[in-house]
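Ticket #4471: complex job returned nothing on first submit. Input attached below:
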Amino acid sequence: MTTEKIHNRQLVFMLFMIRSTVTIATLPVLTTGTAEQDAWLSAIVSLPATLLTILLIGGLAVKFPEETVIEYSRKLLGKTGGTIISFFFLWTFLYTAATEVRIYAELLNTGLFPLTPLIFLVSSMVLLAAVAAVLGIETIARTADALIFFYIFFITASLLGAVKAFDHINLQPVLSRGFGPVFSSALTPAALGNQSLVLGILVPTLTTPRKAVTSAVLAALLSGTVLILSSITVVGVLGPKIGSSSIFPFFLMTRAIEISRFIERIEALVVIAWGMGIFINLAVFLYCGARGVSQIAKIHDYRPLIGPMAVLWVILSVHTYDDLLDLVKFFQPQIFFPYSMTTTILPYLLLWAAYLIRHAGRGEKKYIKKRRIKPG
Amino acid sequence: MKWLNALLGKKNRTVKKELAEENGEDFTDSSLDISEREAAAKSLSLTKSLRENLKMIREITGAPGDLAIREFKTGREQVEIALLHLEGFIDNKLFENILRMLGLGSFQAPVGKGAGPNLLQEFRRRLLQSAEIKEVKTVDDLWNALTNGYSVILCHGSATGLACDTGDFRYRNVEEPSAETSIRGPRDGFIESFYTNIALIRKRIKTPNLWLEELTLGSLSRTKVGILYIKGLASEELVQEVRQRVSRIKTDAILESGYIEDFIEDNPFSVFPLTFQTERPDRVAGCLLEGRVAIVTENTPFVLVAPMDFPMLLQAPDDYYETMHIGTFLRVVRYLAFGASILLPGIYVAVITFHNELLQAQLLLRIAAAKEGVPFPVVAEVFLMELLFELLREAGLRLPRAIGPAISIVGALVLGDAAIRAGLVSPPVVIVVSLTAIASFTVPNFSFGIAGRLLRFIFILLGGAFGLFGVQFGALLVLIYTSSIRSFGYPYLAPMSPLILQSFKDLHLRIWRWRMDTRPLLLGGREPLRQARGQQPRPGIEEEEKEKAGKGRKNDH
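Support reply: We reran it on our side without changes. The output follows.
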C-alpha cells in the first residue's frame, strides 16, 4: 500500500474548516454561558485555551513524527493502557462527528427542509464523507484545497452583508457584569479544541511533520479570528437577547440581512458553506476513526471498516439526541467542558507524563551533545 | 456421436494447419481463420524464385485488382523482374521514374551467375532516385511496404526485394479545424495523414530534441502511432508510462485515437475525459512545451495529449494570443459559463420546487404567473426541455448539411414557440434551458461538453428530489471524485486541488507572457524556468540591460 501524504497547507485548511464550521454554526460563545453582548470577549478568551490544547496534542505528535497516537500511546503506557487511552480518542472522533452531522441536519431541517426525515439528511452527509474517506486522506485534503476559496468567500460575503444592519449599541455595555459570564461562555468553545485530536492521526501523513504545531496554531488563529468577527457581527445585528436565545444565531443573522432590494436572503450561501465545512469535518473524522480502529485491531487496510463505521455513525447521530434541545443541552459548559476534559485533556496529560518520565534523560543528553558539537 | 464429430473436425483442422505450415503456401484453403492466416503470412520469407514469390503473394492477398504487378525482363542476361505497387497509394511520376531507371539498368547490369542480386544492388546504389529505399525479406514486410505507399522491386535469383518510397496518398488539404475554431491564431488543423500531422507540430517546435517514437498498433489495421515529446523536458517516467501503456494495447484495429484513449486511461469509469484530444497543432505544441506527451495516430486528425488536467479543458488558444485582459476576461466568462451549464437547470429546479423564499418577491411572482396552467412539475418541464434540446443538437449534427437549417427552424421556432403557446412549458424554463445550452457551447473541448451534459441531467434530478441540498450533495460528490482521479499519475484538478498558487497565473487568469517565467510545476519540474525573468517592456530597459552586461564583463575580469 502506498503511503498517502498531505501537505501542511492542506492540514491548515482542513483544521480551519473543521474548527470554524462548528463554532460558527452554533456560535457557542453566544448560545452557551451567559456572556451575551460580551461574546466576542469570550471568543478571545477561548483562543489561548484552544492554542494550549493544540500544543498539548500537537506537541506530543511531533515527538513521534512517524506514528499515530494509537501507536505511540501503546509505547508510552504499555499495551493495555495505550489501548484504553486510544478508545477515548476513537470515541471522541465518533461522537463529535455524530454530533456535528446532527447539528447540520437539524439546521437543514428547521431552516430549509422541515418535512424531510432527519435520518435521510444525516445519512446522505455521512455517505459523502464515507466516499471521501474510502478515497483516502489525500483526496480529502485536495477537496479541502478546492473548497477553501468558496468557503472563505461565502463566509466573508455573509459577514460583509451584515455591515448595513450592524448596530454598535447592541455591543454595549462592555463587561457590565465582570469577567464571570465571559469565562462561562468561553468554556465550551475552548473545550471544542478537542477537535484537534485529529492531529494525533494526521501528523504522520504530513509532508513536514515537524511543522505540524505551527500549522495547527495557524489554523486555530484563523478560525479564532472568524469566530471573533462573527460573534461581533451576530450580536451587532441581532442584539444579545435574540442572539443568545436562538439555536443557530449565525443563520438567523443572515436571514435578517437585506443587502439591496434585489439581493436578499443570502442564507443559502451560509448553508452551502457549512455543508462544505461539515463535509470536510466528517470525512476527516471518519478517516481518523477508521485509521485508529484499524491500527488497534491490527488490520492492514482501514477501508473495509468505513462502511460499518458509517452505519454506526448514522445510528448514533440519530438516536443520541431526542431533539434539538437535547443537543443544545449537551453543549452547555457544565456538561461539555468536563466531558472534553476527561476524553481529551486528561488522557493527553497522562501521555505527556509518561513521555517525560521515559524520555527526560535522553532529551538532556541530546541537548548536551548538540552543545558540544557547536563550538567544534 | 457429436463429440466424435467435433473431435474429428478439430483433428482435420489441425492437420490442415500443419500442412499449411509445412508447405507454407496453402493460402487457398478457406478454412483457415484470420489469426491463422496472419500467423502463417508472418512466417513466410521470400524465396529466390520470382515466380514462386509472386504466386505466394497472389495467394495470400487473393490477387486483388488494386495490386498492380508489372513483370518484365531486363539486362543482357534478361533477368526477370517484377515491380509491385498498390493503386491509389503512389505518385505516378515517381513510379514512372523508377520504371525508366529499371529499363536503363539493362545496359549496365552485371553478367553471370549472381545477376539477380547484383542487379538489385546496382539499382539501389546508382540508379533509383527514391527518397527512401529499404530491403524487404518477408512477405509481411513486403505487404507493409506496399500499404505504406512503397513500390517493391523483386528480382529473380534474389531472396530480398527493394522497396522504394513512391508514396503519395491523396489526403484532404490542411484546413481550419471544424471542431475547434478560433478568431485569433493559426488556421491550420491536423488531417488524416500521419507525417503531415507530425510535420505540422515540428514546424512549430524545430528543435532536434522533439523526439518521435513510432509503433504499429492493431494486428489487422496496422495503424501507425507516434509518441511525441521533447526529450529532456518531459519527465522520463511520464514518457516511459505512456510508452508502456500504449505498447501494451493488443487489439485488431485502431480506427481512431478514441480507441487508444479507452485503452490508456487511468480510470475507466471517469465521466470526464482523462486524455486531452485536439485538432490544433498549436495546442499540441503548447502542451509539448509544458512537458506533456502527444500521441499521434494515423488516419485521424485528433491527437491525444497526456497527462491532462481540468483547466486545459477550459483554455482556448485565443486566450494566449489575445492581450492579457481579454484573455483573462474570456477565461473567467468560460469558467462561469461552465459552472452554469452544469448547475443552472438543477439550481432552478431546486429553487422553484423547494426554496421559493430565496427569490425576490417580484421575480417569484413573475415566474409563478408564467407557470400558471402548466401541467407538469418543474422537474419534468426542465428535464423534457433539456432532452428536447439534446435531441435537436444530435439531429442537427447527423443531418445532411442541406437540411440542417430547416430542422433548427422547426426545432427552435415551431416547437419551442408552440410549446409555450400551448401552455406545455413555461417561458422561464425555456430561458434557463437555452441559457444552459449557450453556456455549454463555450467549453472549447467537445468531449468535455458531453460529460457536462450527462452531469446536468443528474443535477436536475437531484435538485428536483432534494432541493439545493441535493445539488450540493451532487457537487461535492463530483468534486471528491475529480479530486481523487489522476491522469497518468498527475492529479486531475491540478492547480486547484492540490492547490498550486504558482500555477494560478494560467488558470482563471492569463497573465502577461513576460510574467509566465516558469513552466507548470508538476509537469515542467525538470527545468522550471521557461525564460529569463524581468522582461517587462518599460522605458530604459535597453540601458538596464547594457549596464547588466557591462557589470557581467567586469566581474569576468
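The mean pLDDT of chain B is 83. Closing as resolved unless it happens again.
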